[in-house]
Write a structure and sequence with these properties.
The complex is a heterodimer of chains A (175) and B (370). With 175 residues, chain A is an alpha/beta fold. Chain A has 5 helices and 8 strands; from the N terminus they run βαβββββαββααα. Chain A has a single domain, classed as Pyruvate-ferredoxin oxidoreductase, PFOR, domain III (Pyruvate-ferredoxin Oxidoreductase, domain 3, 3-Layer(aba) Sandwich). The mean pLDDT of chain B is 97. The chains are: A alpha/beta (175), B alpha/beta (370).
Chain lengths: 175, 370
């Protein structure tokens, strides 16, 4: 089983990102669950979502304690949240940033999701859409197929720019 | 069709496929997505139904009573404070023998204000005459909702059915599930005592002491008969659609020395604890209670073994409600664990810990140190 924890802020689309990832994995023929942790949500507050992907049925509903991958959509949450908490030895971190970062003992990936969204004018209520480009980055990392990422996005959003953003992230992401 | 969705969406989809003629509902966290999705199905004409928005849960069940007594298939959904607000109407519709189906997102009652999973809401309604089933996956939420209509409307039952799913844990998780085409799996509703303008009758008239108990006994007789109807319905469902259900879901119980009992999502997560305990050499098994009313016969699986019961609920001044039922019905002295109240996090490791540390005939409140 592969366990992923996603950190974002309320309003950034982290919950939808988790759902898109589970949907794409499901389209790849895997078992997948996406479970947002619902606290006292409000725009701007740090939120966390959990995604599990496995070949076997997933029976777990509790939160992920030891993720294989941590995704940080907004590095600002790192001021108040220890995003490395429980991350498995040799685990991976994916950050939304134009600049690479170093976390000792972990594999770190970065992609500038914010800029991809802005370049396509993919903005809702004043915020750039990060979740659909994120799915492209995760496809590049091999968590889901490119085709399933595209299908999951198209089923969720009519606006073509969402799939375009995912493909742009796929191209830009360096692994 | 194979798809991926939340527990709430699965319930709404089952309602679409069961085609009720009336849905009267009031939104409440964490079930709101159920009635929102149904409203969408009605507005897009995927479901040919009258959707009645009402001003409260008491009114929603009252509207459901009116529609059901006219002999049409009726659905609603609620949670927690909404459920207890309609308490009077729950007794009314059971007493009037109306086969309404309702989904309840299990959520704690305040104060302190809490929107997370707890089964105290539905369990406090256990004596109302409603059948109650507790589900543990998105697939099961869909399947059980569909079956609930057939069971409720069976002329040997004619009682309302409540489908319970853990708030957030199941209502908001995304999992894969498969829809079915029910065709004639749910026959046309035929309520024998429906209002018929050509044959006027009295409804809910004064019932004196020499009559009232007969109606109560009739409810009890129907609940006893409902075990057969549930089993027939689930067996027919398996034949047509390939998925098997029962009064309980048993996991690795055959040679088990200790059995864990729970309902809802904990009843699924505990299977992971069973696997892990077995690797340590502890012969564990689990029994997930699906149908709480009517209550299953658990003697053959529990008696003579250690029993650990996990209650996501409590009856103040007495004990865990599921543990109490087991004490009353089986000759066992369970280790009663109170865990998961108000969404308290409980993992499969915690559950394995309950089994390792079990003390027969005692109660343990998870997280309380006294």
């Amino acid at each position: 089983m592969y366990e992923i924890r996603l950190h974002s802020r309320g309003g950034q689309g982290g919950v939808t990102a988790a759902k898109l990832l589970a949907h794409a994995a499901f389209l790849d023929g895997k078992n997948a669950t996406a479970a947002p942790f619902y606290g006292a949500e409000r725009r701007g507050a740090p939120v966390v979502s959990f995604i599990r992907i496995d070949d076997r049925p997933i029976k777990i509903y509790s939160q992920i304690r030891k993720p294989d991958l941590v995704i940080v959509l907004d590095m600002g949450v790192m001021d108040t949240v220890n995003v490395l908490d429980g991350l498995k030895e040799g685990g991976s971190i994916l950050i939304n940033s134009p600049n690479p970062a170093e976390f000792e003992g972990y594999k770190t990936y970065n992609v500038d999701l914010t800029n991809i969204a802005l370049s396509l004018d993919l903005i809702v209520s004043g915020s750039p859409i990060l979740n659909t480009p994120l799915l492209g980055a995760l496809a590049k990392m091999g968590f889901v197929s490119r085709e399933s990422a595209r299908t999951a996005i198209k089923e969720a959003f009519k606006d073509e720019r969402n799939a375009e953003a995912a493909m742009k992230a796929y191209e830009e992401m360096k692994i | 069709m194979l798809t991926i969705a939340t527990g709430n969406k699965a319930v709404a989809t089952a309602v679409r496929d069961a085609k009720p003629k009336v849905v009267a509902a009031y939104p409440i966290t964490p079930q709101t997505e159920i009635v929102e999705n149904i409203a969408d199905f009605v507005s897009s004409k995927e479901l040919d139904s009258r959707y009645i928005p009402v001003e409260s849960e008491h009114s929603s069940m009252a509207a459901c009573m009116g529609s059901s007594i006219a002999g049409v298939r009726t659905f609603t959904a609620t949670s927690s404070h909404g459920l207890v607000y309609m308490c009077e109407m729950l007794h009314m519709v059971a007493g009037a023998r109306l086969p309404i189906v309702m989904a309840n997102a299990n959520r704690a009652l305040g104060p302190g204000w809490n929107v997370w999973a707890e089964q105290s809401d539905s369990l406090s309604m256990r004596d109302s005459g409603w059948l109650q089933v507790y589900v543990s996956t998105v697939q099961e939420a869909y399947d059980a909702t569909l079956m609930a209509f057939r069971i409720a409307e069976d002329n040997d039952v004619l009682l309302p059915v409540m489908v319970n799913l853990d708030g957030f844990l199941l209502t908001h998780i995304m999992q894969g599930f498969e829809t079915v085409n029910p065709e004639d799996f749910i026959p046309e509703i035929d309520l024998p005592h429906r209002i018929d303008v050509d044959n006027p009758g009295g409804y809910g008239t004064l019932t004196p002491p020499n009559e009232h108990f007969k109606f109560r006994w009739d409810i009890e007789r129907a609940l006893r008969d409902s075990v057969r109807v549930i089993e027939e319905t689930e067996s027919e469902f398996e034949k047509r659609f390939g998925r098997k259900y029962g009064m309980t879901e048993d996991y690795r119980t055959e040679d088990a020395e200790v059995i864990i009992v729970a309902m809802g999502t904990l009843g699924k997560e505990m299977e992971v604890a069973v696997d892990n305990l077995r690797e340590e050499g502890i012969k564990a098994g689990s029994v997930r209670i699906r149908w709480f009313r009517p209550f299953p016969d658990l003697k053959s699986r529990l008696e003579g073994r250690d029993v650990v019961v996990i209650d996501r609920d409590y009856s103040f001044g007495f004990g865990g409600i599921v543990a109490n039922e087991i004490r009353a019905k089986c000759n066992v002295k369970p280790y009663s664990v109170i865990a998961g109240l108000g969404g308290q996090e409980v993992t499969y490791d915690d559950i394995a810990g309950f089994v390792r540390d079990r003390k027969t005939d005692s109660e343990f409140w998870f997280g309380v140190n006294e």
